[in-house]
Design a protein that fits this description.
The protein is mainly alpha-helical.
Length: 85
Amino acid sequence: MNNFVSRHIKVIEMIGVLMRVFSFSLVSWLGPGSPFMFVWIFNTIDAIMLTWCSTLKRDSAYTLLNGFWILVGLIGILRAGNILR
């Protein structure tokens, strides 16, 4: 998988960034009516994609930032699913 991601890294990064823009835009537009579980899952997937890319590029700052967003996303998923209060 690393070879595939390395070959297509720019496309994968752009998709990840567009996913993040979309998810935050959705929350901004819909506010409390947002489909929060969808947004958290979608946001966590883009964080995984961007973390993977930044790890392959050996960019420690973006690896840390997007790794943080994975953790935030997992907490958001647990909270949206009423598993964590």
